[in-house]
């Protein structure tokens, strides 16, 4: 579909058309910035969007930036990169019905055929047409540019209460976790286990808390990511509405007390972060280890806990699993020796955002009997013992890939109502001219959250 790509203008138009800055990913951990023609509308339903923000996804790093590994829907076809764009409408084709110039929009990052069964359900991510399914930034020009042409059916209105960076994060990561957490029906009755504390895992913790989860347990093996991620989660939730901000301030000033909460308000969830690093000694507030595992857990963490002292450091995933079960039991004494056969200790709902086989196994094993697991982290394998880890525990495992158009629109409205700003997970924002630096920061991980581009 060369007519959609700003990178392939016709000969006579090359000199006459206005130019824009755009970014490409040739592989080998490199970025190319090029001056290309501003794209034109080729269909009556096309819309020209001025990009205001575009963020970097881990799949860009995994499948395109380092080397071109993607196949099928992940195959990169040397187009303008970026599948998390947000901006404002500049021009509309004569056949458009909903949007007009000046509207603030998020671009759903897959353009489907629109008529297959999955597209008609709103899941253009699962479009069955090999001919017409095109993902922005993968098979058609994406958002790492000053302008992008999108089909009107791929646009979602950005609420006034959200920023362009907020919208960019919703276009993939936040939309992905909202779909998954909705599938497994996270509620106030649940502890939520999150494995992997990259940007998607952090989004899962924030959305899970706003869906009402009473306890959030996040696990990662990178200590820098654990410390940074915990702070970003707290920052995002402390700015949100529904009384949480006031409760956090009260807890901080009163040593974790519950005074000052309004009657009937949602209590703040417990937040626990576990670093499942290798080592001989586990440290952390209130945790003691003996030869049998965890012997006691004294006290609980809430949002008043700050900095590295709020991180449990456990010697590997087995010890992390013991701690997860202990935390989900309400912090009561939990002896591995006496409770080893009690499979009903664990999180009611779990989500893996890591794509790592060891973390995925922990996610499944850390889920209690009759619990639900959602897998959203791409790549890698799932390796568990089917009978003890899944079948005998009557657990349900869901695969979840991005989200539907209608649920993403619901999320945008919900975020505005919650007062949650996804941009609070952004640690680095660059102008488009510094794309190479942005991708380098994101590819190193660890000491960064979400990385974005802001287009002036």
UniProtKB/TrEMBL annotation:
The keyword Metal-binding applies. Residues 245-269 are annotated as: Disordered. One of its GO terms (molecular function) is metal ion binding. The lineage of its organism: Eukaryota, Sar, Alveolata, Colpodellida, Chromeraceae. This is Enoyl reductase (ER) domain-containing protein. Keywords: Metal-binding, Oxidoreductase, Zinc. Residues 27-453 form the Enoyl reductase (ER) domain. Pfam families: ADH_N. It comes from Chromera velia CCMP2878.
